Amino acid sequence: MMFLLGLGAALGALGCGSDEVPEPSGAKPPEPPATTDAGPGGEEAACAPLGETVVVSQEDGTTPSILWANGSYLVAWQTLTGGTDEVRVARIGTDGSVSPAHVVATLAGSHAVPSLQATSSGPMIAWEDVGPSGLVIQALALGADGTPTGQPIQLGTSDATEARAATAPMSGGLAVAWMETPGVRLGLVSSGGMSSTTALPGARFPALASRGNELAVAWSTGAELSIARTTGMPGSSVTGTVVRTGAGEARLPSVAIDASGASLVAWEDTREGAERIYLVRAAASGAKQGEVRVEDAEGSANWPIVTVLGERTAVTYYQFQGGPPSIFLSVFGPDLARDGATLRVSGKNARYPAVAFSGSELGVAWAEKDAGIRMRRVGCD
């Protein structure tokens, strides 16, 4: 996918930088948070931490993204400095080493929601920012250590207050979906630029996943949560199967495709008033095969991330369990039966988890209020 370089050069620079940002000298990293690996009934969790929590950045940040590439992790995040914010990327080794962060973009707006993806030509990062006439979704190719290469490319624009762009690599380019008024726009960026796009009227909170040339698209329309599967990119329209409806709303879905071809979707759900997390499994045809509530404790739960672990599925989220939020991880079998106890990955004041699977372990990143970006490796039996 050399289009990231070629198309970027044609469009020109859009606020890219490549300055390294070292941590403040003499700063002492905080002690790693306590982590539990047994449920209230004494059952062991299916997963356990591998090593201590890694301090990726001590400066305040938000909405990290994480990617496994070339034998290490890349973590991207938005800084919250009180002035001009930036999108940064750092490389984290499996030994816990953290490379100096690279500045990917200096933001004109207040939220970027960066997203890392692996492409055939290497890592790529996408984010949103304020442009001359609305939001602009941009992307940039990265080196193995997160160094920006080339110039940013423009993936799309939005007239909405937030775009929440989702991306997924495809054989013909990069699938991109984002919110606009009044719906979602889905398209494919390749060496020839953005191909014809598909509108999803009324849709909100798009989520994408790919496996080979199979694409899964999930979105919500208030009370309804829909999923569609296509081979390659869809044509002029997308027809989804509704897998959730009824009381409350469905928000912020996350989708993945497992080895059998089934789709797994997790989302925030308000059917009980407070936010809960639910997980559904659907056949490639869209037929619903099961649904389960993910968290097994009371308290508002948010920001689910679904990850396929062979025949099992992990759902990572943050939850308020009688106090400040922590990051939790639950594992389910192919029949959506719970596999072990829920694992608490982080300490308190942790939100916005991001997850990458290396093939043998999970990398979980998150933001801690007033304490920066953290990351922890997790192994699952």
In short:
It is built from 1 helix and 30 strands. By secondary structure, it is mainly beta.
Q: Would you write up a description of this structure?
A:
- The protein starts with a helix and ends with a strand.
- The longest helix has 9 residues, at 3-11.
- The radius of gyration is 19 Å and the shape is globular.
- By secondary structure, the protein is an all-beta fold.
- It has 1 helix and 30 strands.
- The strands form 7 sheets. A 5-stranded antiparallel beta sheet has the order 1-6-5-4-3, with no helix packed on it. Strands 11, 12, 13, 14 and 15 form a 5-stranded antiparallel beta sheet that branches. A 4-stranded antiparallel beta sheet has the order 2-30-29-28, with no helix packed on it.
- The protein has a domain at 171-344: Neuraminidase (6 Propeller).
- Residues 18-43 are annotated as: Disordered.
Sheet with the most strands: spatial strand order: 1-6-5-4-3
What structural category arises from helix and sheet content?
mainly beta
Arithmetic mean of pLDDT? 88
Poorly predicted spans: 1-34, 36-40
Overall, the morphology is: globular
* CATH architectural category of the domain at 171-344: 6 Propeller
Strand count, sense and barrel status of the largest sheet are: 5 strands, antiparallel
Strand percent estimate? over 45%
CATH class of the domain at 171-344: Mainly Beta
> What fold name stands as the CATH topology of the domain at 171-344?
Neuraminidase
Which range best describes the helical content: under 10%, 10-25%, 25-40%, 40-55%, 55-70% or over 70%? under 10%
Count of β-strands = 30
**Over all CA atoms, what is the radius of gyration?**
19 Å
End-to-end separation = 35 Å
Oligomer: single chain
Region (Disordered): 18-43
